[in-house]
Amino acid sequence: SSSNNNTQPSSSSSSSSSSSATSTTLNIENARASLKDLVQACFSGSVLHEGDAKANWGEPMLGEMGIVRDVDAFRTKIVRYNSKAFLKQQKYNLLREESEGFSKIIAELNKGPSLNSATITSTIEKIRSLIGYFDLDPNRVLDLVLDSFEQWLDNVTCFTQLVALFNPTSLPHILGFKFQYHLQASQGAGSTPSSLYLLAATLVKHRLLSLDAIYAHLGPSDEVLKAEHDVSLEEASKAAKKVGVTNLASKEESPTPAQDAPMTELKRDNQKFGLAEALLIVNEWTGAHELLAHLSGLDPSSHPPIAAALAQKLHGLLQPLYSLVGPSVWQTAPVMAPPPGVQRGLSSHMSSSASRAAGSASLTAVFTTFSGSAASAPISSSTTGGVQSSVTTMVLNVATSQQWEVPPEYTLEAFAELRAVLFPLLRHMRLHLHTDPVLYAKTCRVLKEFMRVPEVIARHREDVEVLVGKVLLPSLSLTHGNPALSCELWDLIKAFPYQARFKLYGQWKTEHYVKTPGLIMVKAETTSEVKKILRRIVKENAKVMGRSMAKFCHANPIVVLDLTINHIEMYDNMIEPLAETFKSLTSLGLDVLSYLILERLSSTSRPKVQAGSLNEASWFTNLASFVGWTYRKYPSMEIEGLLQYLVNQVVDGNVTELLVLRELLNKMGGVHFTEDLSDAQLSSLAGGEFLQIEAIPSPVPRPTRAPITRLRDVLLTTVQKDPSAPAHTLAFMLLVLAAQQRQRILYNSPQISNLKLLGDTFDKAHETFVQLAEFLISTSTGPSSAVTSMSVGVQALVTQYCLDLESAFRMERATLHLKYQDAPNIPTTSAKSSSSAMDTSSSSRPSLDAEVTSLVPSGVWRGIKPSFYSLFWSLSLYDISFPKEQYTDTFANLVRASTENDALKVPNDPNRTEKEYLRDKANLTIRQKKEKERIAMVTEKLKREEATHQAHQQAVVQRLERDKASYFVPPAAQTSASTDASAEGDVQSVCSFVQTCILPRATFSASDAMFCGRFVRMLLQLRVPHFSALTYFDRALQDVTFSVFCSTESEARRVGVFIRETLTMLEQWRTSEETFKKDCADHPAFGMAGKPITHKQFLVVLFKYHHKLTRSLATSIDSNESVKMRNALLVLNKINDVYPMTTSNYRRLEKAAAKMREDEREDIKTLANTYSAVLTKIKSRILEDEEFKGAPPAPAPAPASVSTPAPASSSATSSSSKSRTSTSSSSTPSTSSSSSSSSGAKPSSTQSSSSTSTPAPPSTATTTSSTSSKTTSEGRSGSAAPSAPSGAKSAPARPPAAKETVKEEKTDKDAPRPASTKQDGSSSVPDISVLAASLRPEKIDRIPAERTDNKDKDKDRPFDRSDSKELKDTRDRDRDRDRDHGRDTARDSRDDRNTSRDSRREVDRYVPPDSRRSPPPEEDDRGGKKRRRDTEAEREKEKEKEKEKEKEKEKEKEKEKEKEKEKEKESSRYRDRDEKEKKDKERHSKDKDKEKEK
Questions:
Q1: Rg of the chain taking only CA atoms, in angstroms
Q2: According to the model, what pLDDT value does residue 507 have?
């Protein structure tokens, strides 16, 4: 059983193996059957042939497929054939050959001219007879025939007939033996003769010799040539790395520049290149093309004879076409003459216009001639060398600006025939076309004319692009900086779209400069030289060094400009000087510059935002600034590609790229987005273009008209990527994308976690949007402009493009401004003409009202009407405001500038010669003349602009006046309105207006914030019904303040502008009751409970506004949130001119600022320090709360008296109290109303009695007061004050009053101050305490008791605070104007000193003469000496400060001198190095010359 078990597996395995073998056999049989069926199908379909199968398949395969019936017989037949072909020898009886036969044959073959077509037949018969008679070897006779043919290459017809008599299979071997012999000899001393190459080429041309048969006998082999080519590449790379590197230890000479020897002779005799040259010479284009294509990897055109032969052939090919378009001077170029028939055809075409057909036929003849159908004369050495003649180089530099029409011979068919021959020749020529500049220019001009044919552009533009990228651009790199060739090439490729051109430049940079040996060396040499130039460029020599750099840039713009951009990215101070150096560049160089800029911007190898920072990277910022400056100076550069790149980047969400667009709009478009402006500059935003240019100083000079027009035209270029999508302009796409980014940044930016970074990004996108919209509006020329045509409507922008309403209206405002402009372009002479124009334009607004109705929630229309909403968003600051003061100030500045210009003189310089003086004087006269003309032109334009603006503003006001009843919904029509129809009940209207109009627009831009404030002022001036001013101010100040806390920094500044504009309007009504009565007394918008509001009630309401504002801002400051704190400080810094005004608000803000000054965050600490300084500066204007509300200033209680007052003093004090009461009762109405509500005369007498430290007798007090009153009254009337009687006793001297916190009493400016009257009718003067109580405590501290030298006119002038306030306001305006023009000086400290001096004068002016007594000796000893010591110490400190300043100035001068010395040392070092290099070069050249002579 065990044996059975052991045997069973073996049997099973044998059975399985047999079954698998059977299945394999079946599979093989099936495969063979399938293969046989496939082969038979191929034979039946003529896909395969039996000859190919017998040559490649084995005998078994042929037998199985049925191709060979008997396999053994077929194998025997093959063996016999191979034996006969390779092993059987042809035996000649050399002993029977006689040398006489060979000599006779040699004599027959070398008969010279006697051997011609007439004698060739007899010669052939004689040669045959000699071979048979002398029993000569035919192969040896063929060798003699080839030798004779080599000597008589002109007799092609006869010798080709002789060669055809012999066996063609022997010809390659005999000719190859000759080549092998010369190849072996060339390794010693000689080389293969050119006649042998021409013989082989002629045989190939006449189809007597196969190129493949002779190629096997040529040397060196392809492997050897490939190895030598690789070695040359490595040597070129190594040499390029050594360029610019100075090794002091090495004695080797520096490598020779590549441009001096771009092509070198071969190290050994290359028979393959020689045959290719001969084929070109004999005009065998087919064989030459095959051979050159086979050798293309070895760069055969680097062999100078091949390049010369190709150039000669191209000259002959292009000359017939070029003669139709080229100038006659080009005919001097040496070219190969075309056949006689062709020449006759061309001459007949040029002589007569009737023979156009003959000329066209001649072109076809030229194509067929150079295709190989006819022979031509061989090229001569004189012709080859003449291409580089000096005359030709001179001709190349002739600029021809004439524009010709395309000749009729330049057709699609002619180009197709030319392309078949010209393009392969040029591709074989490759970069060595630079050896023939004339041919280069001819090629560019002929192709340029063909590119003007629409059919050729449509079908063959890509072929021309390939030719430019492979041949023309690389060849330009090897020229000697010829700008004419660069211009010719630009004339050809400028018709290509920028995408195609930039693609060619990319190939030029990344392929040719990396893989081509000649260009590698050129790049290294150019890089070394350009770096030397870049190190020497400064602002003063930019033009001179720019010319030197342009010489290299004409040939290699890619290399030079790439290095320049690298330099700019590292050094921001080189942007303007390097942009200045591009003036000498050609159009091709500027186009390459635009490509390199776009390449750098699209690079992802470096981050564009600084790591761990909120700012852009320095290289990106420098590059963006360079883009703006470059396109500003050279607007003809390609900019469409750059703008399209920006569109694509913004679509992908890369908002950082918008910096480039902002720089373009800033420097190229002249639109500057600056919101940190003064009040006067903000008011100038309401003016026209010329007012803004003159009133708002620009950090960058305004560009000329050319760059602005260029940028506008490109932005308004229509682009359509998808045929199914609507076409839009680049401006429209950028506007929509920038507006969309505002929402995208807020809601779809998870990568931005920092709120400050998020806000900055939002502000930059918003800034770009506003800047671009402003540029389009400023460059619009009328209702038919392209800006109007790109309008799609507000509804489409909101619904289709997902824009918010404020952005949509900002985009459409440009269109609305042009479509609905109310005033004509010329100043109107009457209001009727303006209103008529306005009526005509307003007929198109119902469509806008209908769009707005569907876009805004329906609840809004319960308060305001759609017409008012659309009107508010359609108008601009220019429409509602006319800045008359700004126009006047601008005219005054122009007059002042004209006066200063006329007063300019040539500065005195004793070292200047008379000739230099006359030259400087002439230059100054020219500058003065130009400046005078500019001022006159600007003045004239400003006058026209002022008249136009005024007429336009009047027309807008008339329209608002006409339609004011339809702006707000009446309270009776409101569903939720109260029953009271007064202005106090229009809450719904005001809330809708504030929420949908004021809040969104006030944060959009600074001009929009100004617009909101002045629009409300205009509504109040027009007395628009159903508009409550008090409700509006309450809601606006409160809601806008709350909106600051969720705003960005820029939006917070704009809110500050709006609040300042609003508070300025309220402050005018607070300070002047007459103005309030005039504007608001009977105004329906200023009503409370159905009654008009009084001035005192208005002050109370205004105090509540200030209190609410303080509470909201202080709460945000105390919140410890950086965004709220920063925004609150930004708002406070904007409104410091009008807020705070009360003591409580001031103390609250001062406390909050002091707390923030200790904050750890540096940005908040900086803002807090700034605001603290502002609070300290405005402290003098702060009022007490009750005084702000209109209450009279109550004097503070004085300290306790030194002695107890006598009873008699009570009458005096009571009388003075009565006099003060009567005096206060004759003040302004607000003062009288406030005094009537006080507690009466008893507290007043108590306060005055307590303030008297030393009592006086009643008679003395009465006498003194009466005398003082007489003095005061006589002083007012202009007479001198009488002196007191000599016997009268003066009142005892009173000590200096203590510091009191008192308030200033407000009086009208021109109202006289009445004197108080006693019961007996005698007038009296108020006590000094009363006068002191009317002054501010800060000024009381500075009153000097010993000052008594005031003038009578100042002493007798009534006290009025408005005088000093007006002086201070005047000084503030002057200081703001100086700061705006960049002439800010140290005027603040001087103003403070003037203010203190004026305050002391004011106090002395109103103190009675008897009160101004010299202090007692004790006080002089204590206080006076101390004050004198203080003043002397201050003077000494000032002197020390001045000395320190002088020392600092001297140190600065010494530093400047040291810097100048260092610069001189550097320049001298550079000069020494240059001289040394020059001497070294001269020495090297002399050594080379000596070696050559040896």
A1: 51
A2: 93
